[in-house]
Fold these 3 entries.
Entry 1:
Amino acid sequence: MRPIRLPEPPNPTIGVPEIFEGGAYSVIRRAVVIGNGSPGSENQSLGLVRALGLYDKHVLYRITRPRGGVNEWLHWLPVSLHKKLVYLIQLIRFYSRGEKLVPSPLENGGASGTSGLASVLEADVKQIVTMARQTFEKDGPLLVVASGRDTISIASSIRRLASENVFVIRIQHPRSQLNRFDLVITPRHDFYPLTPQAREQVPQFLHRWITPHEPPDRHVVLTLGALHQIDSTALRSAAAEWHDEFAPLPKPLLVVNIGWPTSHCRYGVDLAKQLTASLFSVLASCGTVRISFSSRTPEKVSKVIVKELRNNPKVYIWNGQEPNPHMGHLAWADAFVITADSVSQISEACSTGKPVYVMGAERCKWKLLDFHKSLRERGVVRPFTGSEDITESWSYPPLNDTAEAANRVREALSERGWRVRT
């Protein structure tokens, strides 16, 4: 009897079935995103998942905290301890005052026990670990992407309990024990505390309390800015969606994004007045100016700008109502002015290759000051002074942090013998 000859695997150039490339066990086809309710943090995770081609196969889980009242003072606590403390407070009120035990409002929207955001699930370590283990043979490894301080313990626990079934990526520096994750993706300025300049600013006895303590190792991916969902496909889609509103506007279109003061970038009415004066100076070279405020912009800041500019025929001020024109602005703007506090919005604008002017960078300190220094050295931003001619455009190689980080993820997976579906 002649031996049976099995067919050779197909030529890889025409597509190789997964059984010939390590089997289904080596192909990542789905992702879990763990967020904390912060749009900035979750947008980074979703941007990475999108760049990996898994956006249509991801599930969003969220770490929820009680909010409102005394809860606003308890956000520095670990989530589990925060919830237990709130429950204890409710018990005390129940027994001492006869108050009803009412579920606390959660960040997911609605109260505990209600649907909240129907598409967002409460993050549960046991549930995610069980799902990763039980579906491994059928669906392959699970990619877990987490961002935000509240997600650190859950993401690291998932890796510890299901290390053979998951690949866990942490976005933003977890401050300690980087080996709790398979990969850490974080901006270079998160390591600013290790620089000689930073250490000179901090008294010697405080050095041990400033994190991080160690330089990045081989499983840390450094970016210049924040990850996001903006790419050429997203911009083309937004350009088409917002065509009727933006195409007729006189050019050039200057988009102004105003954030809010932070601990590393403080400002108030003084910056609002400076920004308003600078905008008046460049109005002659603008066809249209569109201004957007963050939901967290202080009212005293927005009032100054609205009062001075609302009646100018060239100026449109978004009222904060849906639909949010942010994607339309990114697609149709000819130039941007952005306050220095927002790493996310600056990163998105710098991915377009269009002129980006930053307002208030001189007010920043610590690692945010280092971020702006890196941007200027790359030639992707310029300070907004009011002397600019908006009709004169300039360009630079767009920031491509998200795509570059996705490539590093693929390399790390390859070292493990895994790959993302194609």
Entry 2:
Amino acid sequence: MTEAQQPQLSPDLVRIMERRLSAIEHRSTCLQNLINQPEASPAEYARANKELRKLSGCMDLIAHLRTKQKEIDGLKSLMAECPEDKDMLDMATEELSKAIEEEKRLQSLLLKSLLPKDEADERDSILEVRAGTGGEEASLFAMDVFKMYERYSQKKGWKFEVVDIAESDLRGYKEASAAISGAGVYGKLKFESGVHRVQRVPVTEKSGRVHTSAVSVAILPQADEVDVQLRNEDLRIDTYRSGGSGGQHANTTNSAVRIIHIPTGMTVAIQDERSQHMNKAKALKVLCAKLYEIERSRIQISRSKLRSEQIGSGDRSERIRTYNFPQGRVTDHRVGITHHAIDDVTQGGNLDVFIDALLLQQEMDAIASFSSSSKY
């Protein structure tokens, strides 16, 4: 997040944060005392050490903040003691201005460290795009959206690996999925989940009438074996001949793979690769991500039955964005932002206009929640 996007810290918010910081300092002192006590049991020592390690990053920032606050107090005292010394006053005023800016920067960093974090933000992602209402035109737009994320990923230096594509008659995408790998992929893309609506004249339209179609996008954090325990007895794995546009490799071997997770009934089918082994590996990767997302949703709901995120639920049924080609604009309905260079967005260039606004909104919502939960 750039300096211009840093949220302003109100005096009330600073006071609330100071109470939290004092509590952290007190807790750190108690833990230090505990591990220095000879009578502490090995279990108590281990627990205290683990908690101290968790607090260490925050404590380093607090130490820097306290040093800077002492410097500010010292400069203010100096200015009060030497009101007639213009050179001294000018120098102290300049130093004070720099010190206050640094204090604000440290306070912003500390506030971010205190806000709740989604541990999945640093993970890789599975992207799924499905054509919705609108027939062939929806399939063609699904292809455009899928390629938009591919280009965006390339610009970010991420790895974009096609998992599976099911083509329509006009070579659009009825369904398409990809694995996206890189630093902080899920945290950047997670608010792209939902219904993307397009308004344009389809290639199949002879009279020039504008049609409205829709595709659904799902962004899932990739899971690993530690997150999801897949037991062989819970899986039914079928192989079959892949369909396609023909050619020497089509329909000659049982390379396509369908995996059914028996406890949930969830099905994943992949026929993108010519190798059955590779299709199975891809299908397991997608299945793990889907099961991990179910568990994440269950935990989030159980933590707060009244949870309602102002920027949108990430629900695939929620209409989040409209791409209006005749007017050359893209509008995100959650943050109310319209961008008037539609080609830049669909080429993956200006997608950050929306993504950065959504991430900033998430941070502001978290700050508001932090304030309201810390009043009592």
Entry 3:
Amino acid sequence: MALLPPTSLVFSVRRHEPELVPPSKPTPCEYKPLSDIDDQEGHRFQIRCLHFYRCNPSMQGKDPARVIREALAATLVFYYPIAGRLREGPNRKLMVDCTGEGVLFVEADADVTLEEFGDALYPPFSCYEELLCEVPGCNDVLNCPLLQIQVTRLKCGGFIFAHRYNHTMSDAVGQIQFMSAMGEIARGALAPSITPVWERHILNARDSPLITCVHDEYDTPTMASGTIIPTDNLVHRSFFFGPTQISTLRRFVPHNLQCSTFDLLTACLWKCRTKALELGSNDDVRFICIVNARFKFSPPLPLGFYGNALGYPAALTTAGNLSQNPLEYAIELVKQAKTKVTEEYMKSTADFLVIRGRPNVNTVRSFIVSDLTRAGFREVDFGWGKAEFGGPASCWELISYCIPSKNKEGEEGVVVPVCLPAPAMERFVKELDQMLVKEKDIAAAGSFCTSKRRHFIESKI
């Protein structure tokens, strides 16, 4: 069974007054435009993440809040735009006003131990509002702190590092680069080992914008219209996939089909989710994967680039095709979507966004997945060692994350949080359970995976 039990831990947190932490030395006062990939509509929101750290005897007598606050101030000297504020110019173009005002910082104490959170740490964390408080007047995308941090000390000597960052400034890779730099300085370094690089112009639209690729991922007048998913009675659950679950799912894959764990998991989840939503057979559905495009360029983007370098390629089919065909069909669609991201695709994306007025990602009957297994959330080390868990605090109706994690037996695997209306979640769990039954129970299902050529059910969208 992949379903993880929901967490319901209740505890109290005593917070100090929020403060602004500016760079520890003077920094340039200037305006720095964001790229056309950065400031698209789909990035204009805040992402909340949590990192859990155990007590480390070698750090006895050191206060994690003080260590992290001082490291933050020193790191902001190198990443000084993060201490500024976003402004919006003509045509909704975003730019950073490098004011040096600082990052919002909160110090706190909780009457709970890390052990009380249980054997396994995974989202959704129902307590995250205690661990990352909402400060009035500081929650908008524009004219507000671009980063908020709360360090909550635990009774056991461990602590929780929570942060909320403005997605227009960085993607996960860029944000972890900044956090890792903080960790290096917290451990005694005088400067980050990777020098931050701005260079946002690389991901701007061309002087003569030209859309050269198909962008099914964005809203256009010809796109499907309708509700996203019902938002009443939403349920958040997480699912763990270790070696046993992955091996079971691979029995559905023909031997001649090469696919990654991400391809396999996301295809499985997309298919189960679509069936659980009970859509019409001819309703179009999308899978959108979030791809790091740093190495899709020639040469690759500069080492140290911490802006958004994300592509959102989409696979498009119908609910009937996805539900009725074997898992291989969904895997092929996922793989094809990933291969769309090239240097030309990213240039076409920037041109598309500027020509079309920065539309949002199409959310109607879409399933969006971000692979964070290599992002390095758990590797951020402030001197207490690697985090027990690091990653998003929750998920949304449309977006799930693949997060590296351990189960209660200490087995490494991937946790995927999913959000659905309660009735759909029940159906989703049943669909997933049917795919994760033992080999003897799926012998018949496995018979369709032996042929080298596949014949899929197709209907027009």
